[in-house]
Design brief:
CATH topology of the largest domain: Rossmann fold
Largest sheet: 5 strands, parallel
Helix content: 40-55%
Number of helices: 8
Strand order of the largest sheet: 2-1-3-4-5
CATH superfamily of the largest domain: Response regulator
Number of domains: 2
Structural class: alpha/beta
Order of helices and strands: EHEHEHEHEHEEEEHHHEE
Radius of gyration: 18 Å
CATH class of the largest domain: Alpha Beta
Oligomer: single chain
Distance between the termini: 40 Å
CATH architecture of the largest domain: 3-Layer(aba) Sandwich
Shape: globular
């Protein structure tokens, strides 16, 4: 992990110092930023393996930073928010964040989330070095080697987590998975309580792969059970 750099963007100096201390103790390299403008500069210069991004920041909000960075890089982004309104969590996911945590949170859970996100990112990189593989279901095609998905022959602009979710569902076509199972298999950890993360990613995937997202025919909801993909 010595070469794994994590960027912390947090204007609360005490919290920033605490997170940095715990990351260093885990063996990670750490870069820091205390406002949105600095976050963009550091992210572009340091090219971190993961970004921990607070929502409430001076100059640019975490939402703005996430939106800008997501157009430039595919690094996993974990958003931190002190807000409890569901809409704030959804906004973060919709603009490309891979996960979020609501303050206050335990350092133990934060470290677990970080390990899971980095593990998934490493798996994605490993797939690029494997033999060429193409997955096809209906109008969907995924080129694993190029890390690119297509629908009706057109490339899809997917966030890293949308891509991971789509690959998992395509590989397991026809099988039903609960939200908790998807969190474990795709996000890489047991998610205590709030499973809205899955619902948001499913909704946005449907916007990109369904002819009529309001009446999906590919990514289906199985009432009382979860989701499945059909082709």
């Amino acid at each position: 992990m010595a070469d794994t750099k994590i960027l912390i963007v947090e204007d609360d100096q005490n919290l920033l110092a605490t997170i940095k201390y715990n990351l260093l103790k885990e063996g990670y390299e750490v870069a820091t930023a205390i406002d949105g403008a600095q976050a963009l500069d550091v992210a572009r210069k340091e090219k971190p393996a993961l970004i921990i991004l607070d929502v409430m920041l001076p100059k640019f909000s975490g939402f703005e930073v996430c939106r800008i960075l997501r157009k430039e890089i595919t690094v996993p982004i974990l958003m931190l928010t002190a807000k409890t309104a569901e809409v704030d969590k959804i906004v973060g996911l919709e603009i490309g964040a891979d996960d979020y945590m609501t303050k206050p949170f335990s350092m133990r859970e934060l470290m677990a989330r970080i390990r899971a996100m980095l593990r998934r990112a490493d798996m994605g990189k490993q797939q690029l070095t494997d033999k060429t593989e193409s997955l096809k279901v209906g109008e969907l095609e995924i080129d694993i080697n190029r890390h690119q998905a297509f629908c009706q022959g057109l490339p899809l602009a997917l966030t890293p987590k949308e891509y991971d979710l789509l690959v998992f569902l395509v590989r397991n076509k026809g099988f039903v998975f609960s939200r908790e199972q998807l969190l474990e298999k795709v996000w890489g950890y047991d998610y205590a309580g709030d499973t809205r993360t899955v619902d948001v990613h499913v909704r946005w995937l449907r916007q990109k792969i369904e002819r009529d997202p309001s009446s999906p025919s590919t990514l289906l909801t199985v009432r009382g059970a979860g989701y499945k993909l059909e082709g």
